[in-house]
Write a structure and sequence with these properties.
By secondary structure, the protein is α/β, with parallel strands linked by helices. 57% of the residues lie in helices and 13% in strands.
Length: 221
């Protein structure tokens, strides 16, 4: 009897192992399909699968000789898609936008304050012009000096929706944080990341905020 029980347990373990491997392969293929097409039969299920099996799916990508950063990219895109309806339901006055300090010019003259880096509108980078336009439309705009700053501003000002700009790892962790707060968040990944002189596609940024008129103007500057 014990031998039969061990045999049954062994078979169950083997079956579960194969089911686990198949699940990883399916999630990986769906993620790759979404990355290439922007389509998914069920974004919520795919995102849940990525969050649960993230490490294993990345390992699968590396095993297949593919770039595992695709997984982070897809996770951000899916969260943006899932959050978009709730995000758009709020007016600009209930939204906070967080720019990373690395997007500033290396010659920036702005000073640090408890409310973040205070833009001097010196014209050396795009943040000053963007901040002016956004604040005129009611957005709360911050330039982030460090990761803990975002959490403090969320607690202090209690925005109803968030826009975060940064490198892929920062955006991913930030969106997960917002999810815990129940905040719809839109993450925008820098075109070029790093510690200084990073770049952002400003036309895409304004289009994401449904400010295409600004995007059209900026494309002609």
């Amino acid at each position: 009897m014990p031998e039969q029980l061990y045999l049954i347990i062994g078979q169950i373990v083997v079956y579960l192992f194969f089911i686990f491997i198949i699940a990883i392969a399916i999630i990986a293929m769906l993620a790759l399909y979404y990355f290439k097409t922007g389509r998914s039969p069920s974004p919520n299920i795919l995102l849940s699968g990525l969050l649960v099996l993230e490490g294993h799916v990345k390992a699968f990508f590396r095993l297949m000789g593919m770039d595992d950063s695709i997984i982070d990219n897809v996770a951000v895109q899916l969260q943006n898609k899932i959050s978009s309806r709730q995000f758009n339901a709020h007016p600009p006055t209930e939204k906070a936008i967080f720019f990373p300090q690395c997007l500033r010019s290396i010659d920036c003259t702005a000073k640090l304050s408890p409310e973040g880096i205070q833009c001097a509108s010196c014209g050396r980078c795009e943040i000053g012009a963007a901040k002016k336009i956004l604040e005129e439309r009611g957005y709360n705009v911050f330039i982030v000096p460090g990761s803990s700053f975002v959490k403090r501003m969320i607690i202090k000002y209690a925005p109803k929706a968030i826009v975060g700009i940064g490198c892929i790892s920062e955006i991913k962790s930030g969106m997960e944080f917002c999810h815990r707060f129940g905040l719809p968040a839109i993450g925008m990944v820098l075109d070029k990341d790093g510690c200084i002189s990073t770049t952002l596609d400003w036309d895409v940024f304004y289009d994401t905020l449904d400010m295409g008129d600004v995007a059209i103007k900026s494309s002609h500057l």
